[in-house]
Amino acid sequence: MLEYSPESHAGQAGISVHISTDSSLSLPPSLPPSLPPSLPPSLPPSLPACLPACLPACLPGSLPLCLPPSLPACLPGSLPLCLPPSLPPSLPPSLPPSLPPSLPIFINNEWQDSVSGKTFPVYNPASGEQICEVQEAEKADVDKAVQAARLAFTLGSVWRRMDASERGRLLAKLADLVERDSAYLATIESMDSGKPFLPTLFVDLQGTIKTLRYYAGYADKIHGTSIPMDGDYLTFTRHEPIGVCGQIIPWNFPLMMTAWKLGPALACGNTVVLKPAQQTPLTCLYIGSLVKEAGFPPGVINILPGFGPTAGAAIASHMGIDKVAFTGSTEVGKLIQEAAGKSNLKRVTLELGGKNPNIIFADADLDLAVEQAHQGVFFNAGQCCTAGSRIFVEEPIYEEFVRRSVERAKRRTVGSPFDPTTEQGPQISQEQQSRVLEFIRSGISEGARLECGGKALGLKGFFIEPTVFSNVKDDMRIAKEEIFGPVQQIMKFKTIDEVIERANNTEYGLVAAVFTSDITKAMTISTAMQAGTVWINCFNALSTQCPFGGYKMSGNGREL
């Protein structure tokens, strides 16, 4: 894979162009016939007293399952994967049901109940059943966490006096602990979010570990500059930590987004108040136990599960927070930007929604384009801000592309996250399932042709059939609004100028993709797209080394 990025990590606007020269996965030629029967014993000997019952250190060694000879069906085709030297332990059907009344919040390296004592339920989206209760953080808890974070950031504190290389060592230690517990974390993540276990282990966990290790190495390589100046003066710059960073992460990639937020902030010497999504707080809370085990000083990392209008709003408007970073919807991003401006003009990074174009020319490798377009929409049940849901196909191959896309969608396996053949799990909640089904109904009523899918699936859980629409017009809701579900829209174009204009005719500008064998077309499209990242003959080729973010209403600044 060749990668070209004409922007720096300074967060300035620019695009990242990724060119794939090999469509194959970086998987070993064959996989062992079965997984070991039980988890390795290298999990921590103990967790804080209030956690073990809900997050036990050992899982039942049940269901030694056999893997298929290859995994292209359940892993996105172009994600740069880094597989562990050995395969994971057996896939447990679920975590043990013996749970405490509620899980606590994490402030100042201590587990504690929320000030109000309120709790909220966390559900398994594959079954609709409640997993446990979690203490609900509100404004008073944010105040406590900010106080702890500000104390940890005080001049002369252990954290502020710590060498950059030592900060890097702590991040590396945290990465090692995540790697040690990766199968366990993947299990919790799959149960909490409905994500299939194998992609969670091979994509999410590996991405989390790589991000933490990347920023562990970056911590002592942040340099200033000297500047020539008239007269007898010496001028130099140095990079300073911002201070207390409020971080609000989404429910679609809880672990990876935690690493994306923590890694850069901690490497640069900041302290953190982090709010996981209320739908998926469990793995983030487990990270709290690993933070303490790694040896981070008290107050450096604080984890507050709660709701956006209470805990999230308190973070965005808090006078003691110096920067807020948010990943989520454009609508909420606007509220956060407004709150930051009305409070202390804190810095804001927003990674928001997308309605991303994927352009398929007639000279493209059709097999590759169909599979990549399929994975680009349906990966993670369509719950990706990068989903390539607006697919523009050149007229000569349009009918064939639609036919093959429908065949591929009908082969997609939907089911239990712990079945190794599952490609697609449930939507995150009943509310989200209903929202996606409403989009499907709107597509039908506005005249798009429903080729397959379109209905809820199963008697329990929040599943939706993989859905494909053809004959989609640019002014339909399904072509304009972010669906965040397993719904593929395929449109037709005739000329390159036409498709450039139509692809850019959106309020979003997160990512785009083009499939062609003509380098001139590829570079023309990549230059013309109003998007933060453009992929050429690949999709979702994300990397820790490359900045990520969007244009227009897809956000401000860059992650990583």
Automatic annotation (TrEMBL):
InterPro entries to which the protein is assigned, alphabetical: Ald_DH/histidinol_DH, Ald_DH_C, Ald_DH_CS_CYS, Ald_DH_CS_GLU, Ald_DH_N, Aldehyde_DH_dom
Domain Aldehyde dehydrogenase: 111-559
Gene3D superfamilies: Aldehyde Dehydrogenase, Chain A, domain 1, Aldehyde Dehydrogenase, Chain A, domain 2
GO molecular function, one term: oxidoreductase activity, acting on the aldehyde or oxo group of donors, NAD or NADP as acceptor
UniProt keyword list: NAD, Oxidoreductase
Domain of life: Eukaryota
Active site per database record: E351
Family: Belongs to the aldehyde dehydrogenase family.
Protein name: Aldehyde dehydrogenase 1 family, member A2
Gene (UniProt): ALDH1A2
